[in-house]
Amino acid sequence: MSQPLKLQDLMEANGVVAALRWQQSRFINAIAYPARLVEYLGFEGEERARQLMLSAEAMGLSIKGVLEIDYYRDRNQNPHSLMPADGYMIHGQKFNLVCTLNRVATLVDNKVDYDLKGLFLKQALVRND
């Protein structure tokens, strides 16, 4: 069985320049509160980490919605499915944003050759409860 990782462990992965984790919104009296930044490393300041967190949260929620639609399609007519998925990547000019649906993200330098599958696995193992 795999052991949970700490966010700091991601910073040791090849190419990772920053990492963050956050937790989902609270729902009280039908009001959704913004996601809560829990921890960040490698960012110049908390505001930059918070901006990236909010973007990643919005993208993650939209991807989860698409996956739910795909999951409930008729399996006899559509045996191919994106489910299950545990993460997504946004490719940028200088950095890639690698996110997992357990609300963990890393910024990876495009100039560095890194193991994307291994990074997804490591991020999925970061304890975030």
Q: What's a concise summary of this model?
A:
By secondary structure, this protein is α+β, with helices and mostly antiparallel strands.
Report on the structure:
The chain is an alpha+beta fold. It contains three helices and seven strands. It has helices at 7-10, 46-71, 116-124, and strands spanning 16-23, 27-28, 31-32, 36-41, 87-91, 95-100, 104-109. The strands form two sheets. The chain has a five-stranded antiparallel beta sheet, sandwiched between helices. A two-stranded antiparallel ribbon has the order 2-3. The longest helix is centred in the middle third of the chain and has 26 residues, at 46-71. The protein is globular. The two termini are 19 Å apart.
Q: What is the H/E order? A: HEEEEHEEEH
Distance between the termini: 19 Å
Radius of gyration: 16 Å
Strand order of the largest sheet: 4-1-7-6-5
Averaging pLDDT over every residue, what do you get?
87
Largest sheet: 5 strands, antiparallel
Count of beta strands? 7
Count the DSSP helices.
3
Strand content: 25-35%
Give the overall silhouette. globular
Q: Share of helix among residues? A: 25-40%
Structural class: alpha+beta
Instruction: Extract low-pLDDT stretches.
Output: none
